[in-house]
Give the backbone structure.
Amino acid sequence: MVDAPAPATSPARSGLPSQQIFQREWHLYRKVMDNNYLFHDEAYACLRHVLLNEISKPFSFLDVACGDARASLPALRGTAIAHYEGIDLSRAALDMAEQALLDLGCPFILNEGDFSELLPTRREPVDVVWIGLSLHHFLKPDKLRVMRAVRQFVGEDGLFLVYETASPDGEDRDAWLRRWETQRPFWTACDANEWAMIWQHVSTADFPETASTWHAMGREAGFDRVRELFVAPSDLFRLYAFE
Ligand SMILES: C[S@@+](CC[C@H](N)C(=O)[O-])C[C@H]1O[C@@H](n2cnc3c(N)ncnc32)[C@H](O)[C@@H]1O
């Protein structure tokens, strides 16, 4: 079950398996968030901590693959955010984000589109770029292409943060997937069909990188400093800051 072959091109670029679960099953993703199975609470608390403690002036924030913005919103409230921009492929998710963000208290815009196409052509600078659980649908060369693009428009004092699938050094994707499968007993709120849907998504569309590869990709993309700020208790996801 775990040995799904890796495709030659990133599935997110061909737009398919990585998207189906979010286009049709947003309620399932919500359930996953509500039960904190992917450790959103800790990851977004970490984002909030950085925004409150490391940024002293008003900042613009780009939420790449924002979804319904439900995870970002509590992390941003009460920070010095001056402008919010979200990008997502899913119109349905953006419609929910539009309602939620009215509460943020600063101007915002939402762009519907594929971030792997929008970011490389972007010129407008931004202070903080965040990607939560969406870059991992790409294989390494495409991840790097997105990271290089971000480096071009995040300013010298800017910050790029990602919370993504990651492995300890030395672990390959099959071993990471085998560890993913051991999470099943903890996902008690999901029935067999829901778990099957999640498993189908993860095993076809998720591509972790090792901790060393995340550091190396950051440097290759042109960032001087890479910090690992959080490792999920499952050790399936990690949060990195690139400066
Ligand atoms: C796992 S959710 C992440 C949502 C939120 N960032 C979080 O941390 O929970 C994935 C989101 O990424 C969006 N997405 C995936 N690939 C994308 C792409 N290439 N361009 C834009 N949005 C994408 C999906 O539509 C979905 O809303």
Observations:
- Residues 1-9, 11-16 have pLDDT under 50 and may be disordered.
- The first strand starts at residue 59 and ends at 64.
- The domain at 19-242 is CATH 3.40.50.150 (Rossmann fold).
- Residues 12, 18, 22, 65-67, 71, 87-90, 93, 114-116, 132-134, 137 surround S-adenosylmethionine (CB under 6 Å).
